[in-house]
Amino acid sequence: MASSGTAVSLSNVRKTYRIGEPVHALDGVSLEVPRGSYTAIMGPSGSGKSTLMNLVGCLDTPTEGTVVVGGQDVGTLGDRERTRLRGTEVGFVFQTFNLMPRLNAVENVALPQLFQGVGRAERLERARDLLERVGLGDRTDHMPNELSGGQRQRVALARALVNDPAIVLADEPSGNLDTDTEADILDLFDEFHAGGTTMLVVTHERHVAERADRIVHLLDGRIERIEELNGASGSQPGTPAGQEPGGSDE
After folding, report:
1. What is the pTM of this model?
2. For the chain, N or C: smaller number of CB within 10 Å?
3. For 50, which DSSP code?
4. Domains, the chain
């Protein structure tokens, strides 16, 4: 996968839900996610993390501003076009795995390619190759209920990568795993990132976020600051560079 250019770009994005009084889930967020980068998103509940992931994942559209994924403006696309874009440009890894219970491991991994019209032999070969890469080459025929939590998350990661997406979105990917298994999954994230995969991870855990190149701290629907993990720390305009995560002058 190419490591130059931009995988995702958000420009002055606002997302407002009208349930009685308007609720501004995101309020003027601008962010670029370069191809080949590893970004973590942190923030308290209600900070806008899930809304941001839904927009980047083409599951929703902004009220204002632009979200560009894989070179396409998500807000200008119809439902079918967004579904197609989501299938080709975005891979998802969920806390609860979201595997199809009646499909075995290789069938779960291959499933996204079915919707892209890839032939059966080709998609199964690709799925087996990815399962081998995540250490499950001997578990391809196992059903989800025959796999441990860590193994199911490995299947989910392989599935996320099967279409060679522009970006992999991971939402609390280690939330249901024990400490040792969590470390194994995060090591796999590191490995695929080193190979050029663009990673965007939402987490409440500092040690998980520190695997990334940078941490985007959200608070009240805004970017509080962007923390570079090479020792430098950046901030959005109007935000004190030294402000701690979770703090607010409001």
Report:
1. 0.85
2. C
3. H
4. 37-62+76-228 (3.40.50.300)
